[in-house]
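Sample log: NAD(P)H-dependent oxidoreductase.
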Amino acid sequence: METNKHKLVIIVGSVRDGRFGPVVASWVAEQAETHGGFETEVIDLAEMDIPLALPAASPKFAGDDYPRPEGMAALTSALEGADAFIVVTPEYNHSYPASLKAAIDWHFTQWTAKPVAFVSYGGAAGGRHAVLHLENVLTELHAVTIRDGLAFPMYFTTWQDGRPLDPETPGYAKTLLDQLSWWAGALRTAREAAPYPG
């Protein structure tokens, strides 16, 4: 990895049949590449083994001994190596998918003292209820959530050929990525200088 670039992991949070998440994640990855501040990896939770049943021990205290399924190794490695995250999520019943909650709960230290931005999509609310819930959860894991996210209401009418129709959207994406890059650099420097006290 180039030292002037941050490792960005984009997470596709939905595993539902016919989901729109991969389309959004592909566009977000393209914006991140254009931005130039990131080395980008897209992680699709539909390709991971993420059981809902968790071990008795907490991943915070078990550390490297936490018994994760072998099929989760790529996810754990990506989260561990990331400097920053973008979570792409739909809104299901005013919240985010169970697949995303399970992926979060199987980990702890991998999120700590790292920035997380959100890109959501849905009906009239554009996934904003899902993001509000995710902000609470990831704050509990000592992640830093980014204020300026992207939300796509009525995505089924506002996207065409894998791209949002609003010509202003790339500018909004740049704002998100600028903030994410700043926090990624600041927090990586801080983690390298001293262990996070949490």
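Observation: The two ends are 27 Å apart (CA to CA).
Observation: The mean pLDDT is 96.
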